[in-house]
Structure to design on (87 residues):
């Protein structure tokens, strides 16, 4: 899955489930300041995103996100993470 596809799924979820104005849902939008998502919304969003991921979401990854692009990058990284093959 490419970053544009991840963003589009994220945007759809934010518009449909969080009643956000589609024009405000842009990659550089900050979750708390621009979109007024609180911590409960963030948890709900992560639950929604779990369907896009092949494994459980690492909460540590999402503690660092501030913008929608950060979320896209985090999901992309999780999807394209190489399995740990070091011995």
């Amino acid at each position: 899955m490419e970053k544009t596809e991840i963003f589009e799924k994220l945007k759809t979820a934010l518009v449909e489930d969080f009643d956000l104005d589609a024009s405000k849902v842009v990659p550089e939008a900050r979750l708390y300041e621009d979109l007024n998502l609180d911590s409960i919304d963030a948890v709900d969003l992560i639950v929604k995103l779990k369907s896009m991921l092949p494994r459980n979401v690492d909460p540590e990854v999402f503690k660092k996100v501030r913008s929608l692009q950060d979320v896209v990058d985090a999901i992309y990284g999780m999807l394209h993470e190489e399995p740990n093959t070091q011995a």
In short: Residues 3-79 form a domain with the Non-ribosomal Peptide Synthetase Peptidyl Carrier Protein; Chain A fold (CATH 1.10.1200.10).
